[in-house]
Write a structure and sequence with these properties.
mainly beta, 8-stranded antiparallel β-barrel, 8-stranded antiparallel beta sheet, 3 helices
């Protein structure tokens, strides 16, 4: 009888370790979202909430994209391709709820939430001396020479520069799963998470406006593939967590 009472008290104590915001955890991680810092607190042993900030460093992608003319233009194209660079640097924030089906007895979790901020997925820049020289010699051709980024036509400016960005939705639902708590029972722990953000089909912007579409090129380059195929953003994250309260 005494053993049963002690066992029940032990189980109760385990469950009470996590109650309404009675603990606070801090997490530092790295993965496909960049460098992440999160803070979390439990509601019960089965439910935990977390908020975080993610910073992607200036990872750069280079590629050659096709150059042509705007529809119905009689402008002569001075070159076939131009090298552009994509900069993936951005900062996002997220809010997630983590459900632990086994309560305090397990660390496996299912996650749901959303990410916001960081609409600009990739900043695209390029330059062509040939286009610059052609436009100086033929000012009537200004605004008619374009480069194909998937179905979108980025327009060269008068200096032969090409600037644009790939944008996604500013609000992105999230689903995931993993192992480990944002608020560990011990002071220090580890955490693994796998999931994805649903941000829809990216679109190409220039000067704050979505650029015209006219598919005349296959767009066989890494930047065009981001626009064409990346409708979800994968999350793979490994974190070091600590309990501060």
């Amino acid at each position: 009888m005494c053993g049963l009472v002690v066992a029940c008290m032990g189980m109760s104590a385990q469950q009470q370790f996590y109650s309404v915001f009675n603990r606070v955890g801090l997490s530092v991680g790295a993965g496909t979202e960049g460098i992440s810092v999160s803070v979390g607190a439990p509601l019960t042993a089965y439910l935990e909430f977390g908020m975080g900030m993610n910073v992607v460093p200036g990872i750069k992608i280079k590629g050659d994209i096709d150059v042509g003319t705007a529809t119905y233009s009689s402008t002569t194209v001075p070159l076939g391709e131009v090298e552009v660079e994509g900069n993936l640097a951005r900062t996002t924030f997220d809010f997630k709820a983590h459900c632990y089906p086994f309560g305090s007895r397990g660390k496996f979790f299912l996650a749901a939430g959303f990410s916001f901020g960081g609409k600009e997925l990739c900043d695209v820049t390029g330059h062509s001396d040939e286009v610059e020289a052609y436009l100086r010699a033929n000012p009537e051709a200004r605004g008619s020479i374009v480069a194909a980024l998937d179905d979108y036509n980025l327009t060269f400016d008068d200096n032969g520069d090409l600037r644009g960005n790939i944008e996604v939705s500013g609000f992105r639902p999230y689903l995931g799963l993993g192992f480990g708590r944002l608020v560990p029972k011990h002071r220090i722990g580890a955490r693994f998470e796998l999931g994805c953000h649903f941000h829809g089909k990216p679109k190409v912007m220039q000067d704050g406006q979505e650029v015209p579409t006219d598919k005349w090129s296959d767009g066989d380059n890494d930047l065009s593939k981001i626009v064409e195929k990346v409708s979800v953003y994968p999350v793979l994250k490994l974190s070091l967590v600590g309990r501060i309260l």
